[in-house]
């Protein structure tokens, strides 16, 4: 592999603007995040760097400044993909940074699910990435175009492609989104063909084992999150199948994906219209004359509830943490005061 320049690694004017003129500190792009180090690529080759804070603050795709041993600065991200981590403690988890395009991979079969696509589209919109829907296994159905139309209906902004991921020439149709230093991230359920696409785009043979016939969901074959060079001269981020995907803090992303509904709500007679049975409800009117699908309205409500719930539980967890700290200090003062009062 010839060594890419900063621009070849994805450095852009967005990062230049964060530096003082003439600042020539060495730069590196993070390709993998480990427990106590980050692995990075520089125009001079790979580097293993220590970080001043927990490595959890860094994401694959991040740009940093460094002194050869330590990260000295984390650059503001151009885009970021994050989700609420699975588990009892509400916490945002970074998935990837500085991703130009989010490639949402699903197959032309039972994996295709409108609600899940909208969820990923909202994450792409909230993170600032271009949305793309890649429909694999088009070779196994006569209805690939129908799937494409259904996907396109969810977001007019998204690029929608149907293909057989196992055919390298077809997979290489993704090249325009991962060439000249541009970064593409692939997300989607296990078994939809992310590894197959990655192999074709990078020329690197990762372990793709055939999924068992009786296991429609597929086996988990992706080892770790990583940034890889593509044959087209860009970058590819492949994240492990994202199960338990939860939204949080992506209200703007939801508004963008469901712009059709949000536009309608502005025409409702009442500002606090719940779009149930209120007179003059523009949303119900659109359902009535077939401009809006009632199921889409229901999915919009459900995602909105989920986002509010998760965002609130994260805010509440932070508030509880702060309150516990305060109580500790105040408890002491109040005890002193009580004793003095007696
Ligand atoms: N017929 C057909 N098979 C495909 C296509 N894409 C992937 N497959 C097959 O589906 C299986 C799973 O593909 P993978 O690339 O491993 O799926 P993945 O998304 O990487 O799965 P995880 O690593 O578990 O996240 C493999 O047997 C692939 O050969 C396609 O477009 N058409
Ligand atoms: Zn209404």
Automatic annotation (TrEMBL):
Enzyme Commission number(s) of this protein: 3.6.1.-
Protein name: Small ribosomal subunit biogenesis GTPase RsgA
Binding positions for GTP per the UniProt entry: 136-139, 188-196
Family: Belongs to the TRAFAC class YlqF/YawG GTPase family. RsgA subfamily.
Domain (EngC GTPase): residue spans on this chain: 97-243
Predominant localisation class: cytoplasm
Feature: compositional bias, Basic residues: 322-332
Gene name linked to the record: rsgA
Cofactor(s) it depends on: Zn(2+)
Binding-site residues, Zn(2+): 268, 273, 275, 281
Composition bias, Basic and acidic residues: 333-342
CDD domains: YjeQ_EngC
SUPFAM superfamilies named among the record's database cross-references: P-loop containing nucleoside triphosphate hydrolases
Gene Ontology cellular component terms for the protein in this record: cytoplasm
Subcellular location: Cytoplasm
Protein's UniProt keywords contain Zinc-finger: no
């Amino acid at each position: 592999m010839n060594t890419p320049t900063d621009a070849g690694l994805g450095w852009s004017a967005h990062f230049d603007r964060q530096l003082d003129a003439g600042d020539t500190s060495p730069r590196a792009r993070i390709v993998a995040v480990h427990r106590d180090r980050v692995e990075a690529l520089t125009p001079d080759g790979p580097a293993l760097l220590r970080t001043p804070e927990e490595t959890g603050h860094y994401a694959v795709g991040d740009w940093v400044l460094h002194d050869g041993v330590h990260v000295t600065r984390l650059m503001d991200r151009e885009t970021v993909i994050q989700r609420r981590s699975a588990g009892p403690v509400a916490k945002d988890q970074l998935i990837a940074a500085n991703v130009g395009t989010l490639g949402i991979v699903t197959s032309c079969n039972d994996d295709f699910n409108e609600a899940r696509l909208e969820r990923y589209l909202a994450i792409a919109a909230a993170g600032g990435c271009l949305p793309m829907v890649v429909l694999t296994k088009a070779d196994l159905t006569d209805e690939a175009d129908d799937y494409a139309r259904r996907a396109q209906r969810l977001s007019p902004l998204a690029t929608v492609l149907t293909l057989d991921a196992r055919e390298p020439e077809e997979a290489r149709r993704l090249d325009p989104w991962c060439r000249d230093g541009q970064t593409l991230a692939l997300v989607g359920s296990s078994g939809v063909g992310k590894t197959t696409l990655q192999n074709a785009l990078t020329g690197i043979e990762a372990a793709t084992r055939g999924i068992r016939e009786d296991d429609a969901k597929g086996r988990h074959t992706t080892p770790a999150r990583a940034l890889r060079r593509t044959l087209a001269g860009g970058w590819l981020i492949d994240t492990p199948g994202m199960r338990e995907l939860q939204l949080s803090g992506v209200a703007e992303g939801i508004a963008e994906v469901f712009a059709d509904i949000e536009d309608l709500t502005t025409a409702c007679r009442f500002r606090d219209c719940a779009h149930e049975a209120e007179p003059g409800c523009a949303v119900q009117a659109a359902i009535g004359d077939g401009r809006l699908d009632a199921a889409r309205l229901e999915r919009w409500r459900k995602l909105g509830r989920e986002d509010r719930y998760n965002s609130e539980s994260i805010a509440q967890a932070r508030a509880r943490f702060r309150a516990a700290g305060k109580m500790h200090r105040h408890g002491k003062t109040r005890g002193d005061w009580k004793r003095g009062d007696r």
